[in-house]
Amino acid sequence: MxxxxxxxxQTTWANAISLFRQPALLIKSLVARNLAMPLVAILLVxxxxxxxxxxxxxxxxxxxxxxxxxxxxxxxxxxxxxxASGLLVSHSVLAIVLVPLTVEVxxxxxxxxxxxxxxxxxxxxxxxILLPLAAGMALHHALQGSSPRFARSIGxxxxxxLLVAILPLLVVAWRAxxxxxxxxALLALALFVLAGxxxxxxxxxxxxxxxxxxxxxxxxxxxxxxxxxxxxNFPAQVKLVAGxxxxxxxxxxxxxxxxxxxxxSAPDDSVDAGSVAAHP
Length: 280
Prior knowledge:
mainly alpha; Na+/H+ antiporter like fold
């Protein structure tokens, strides 16, 4: 919440709703994140005889929205501030409908009985993303559009707390690694990340910074929501699923490195004075 509040302190209303005003860009991002990735998850689950926890993690990750800490990472990678903010807001709002809908579609395909309705999704999205973002934006507006000097410090404190919170999950991930890895599990997780980069890059449009941003956004999934869905439906498997999700997060960060290096050589055709771009 602190990280998102700090983002809000540097975000304008125009940036936040930018993708709703550009339906072509919004549709492309939805096709990449909410259509291509669930299809990739289905193919991977059917192609590899993996541990059920790995299959569950891949499927659940494929239905989740953008993680709330992503906009700053996108801007650091060269994305337009308006596009980064627009992705977070639009996909967070639409996730309230799209996540339960996609879960039900997956039930039809796999014959499962997984349920996670709009209310718990809305609660998670509103409390963790929309409320702190709106609070930060309100203060940004009250300060007449100037980003307060303490915005970066708040974001840094939030990031440190987030890293501290993740440390215990590394133990869970290590234990899960010893149980679930095998039968192509690591390969499947890597392919899931690479497919996200490819889908987002392909559908990002002619703007080079948008292509980079959508590639990273498509390969980035909301780990907390994936674990929450697992906990609500598979309490006995939630630790293994959580461990697999953390492994995915670590693996994705490693695979992002060569992609980001390659994209740095792309021509910079974005000029955006958006507020999130204040981050280095």
